[in-house]
Amino acid sequence: MNRRLVLKQLAVATAAAWILPSCVSDPKKVSIALNRLNINGDDEELLAAIADTLIPKTDTPGAKDVSAHLFAIVMVDDCMTKADQDKYVKGLKAFDNTCKTVAGKTFGQASAEERTGILEKIETAKDTLPEDVKTFYGTTRHYVIEGYTASQYFMTDVKPYQLIPGPNFKGCVPV
Predict the structure, then answer these.
(1) How many other CB atoms are there within 10 angstroms of residue 147's CB atom?
(2) CA 104 to each of CA 92, 114, 115: distance values in angstroms, whole numbers, following the listed order
(3) HSE-up (13 A, CA, CB side) for residue 52
(4) Neighbours of 92 (CB within 10 A)
(5) What is the Cα–Cα distance from 101 to 132, expressed in whole angstroms?
(6) What is the predicted pLDDT for the residue at 23?
(7) What is d(CA 153, CA 168) in angstroms, rounded to the nearest whole number?
(8) What pLDDT was estimated at residue 170?
């Protein structure tokens, strides 16, 4: 037995075992790091589609363009309790089934006009929806709108934020 050959093969096998997992990547991972929320890339795509339907891209960027859906995911991950997060994820998983019952298609299969119609039907049929889906949709809608109005684009181009009172403010005026 040649010791050098064994050591060389052992070194190659160790390096391969160390490097190989980084070469194999899962294309459906979430694009941001989450601490407690357990969602995958398909769920992120669904949230992006919902955000793009709520605030679509016109001559101005839409909610998906300013990453409002990622803001919503981070807010759910950081600010909600574990029980509320579980309810949110359960509603996220059941959302496509609800879309099938409401419109006959999943949200991802629908066109832009059909997606708008699906969300309108969900808005009008809130009393008949499962509680988890209502929680998911309401929370997502709230955080997407909040994320869009807090985005850099909105705060600089649409409604410029002024840290101090406007140009007409005079703090030292004799009364």
Answers:
(1) 23
(2) 18, 10, 12
(3) 17
(4) 23
(5) 15
(6) 65
(7) 26
(8) 75
Which tokens sit at 144? 């997407």
* Residue type present at position 122: I
Distance CA 161, CA 18 (A): 50
Instruction: Show the low-confidence residues of the chain (pLDDT under 70).
Output: 1, 21-28
Rounded CA-CA distance 83/73 in Å is 16
Residue 163's pLDDT is 73
Cβ atoms 93, 39 nearer than 8 A: no
Q: Which two tokens stand for residue 158?
A: 């649409």
Contact yes or no for 126/134 (Cβ under 8 A): yes
Q: For 34-57, what is each residue's pLDDT tens digit?
A: 888 888 888 999 999 999 999 999
* Contact predicate 147/63, CB 8 Å: yes
How many Å apart are CA 97 and CA 99, to the nearest integer?
Answer: 5
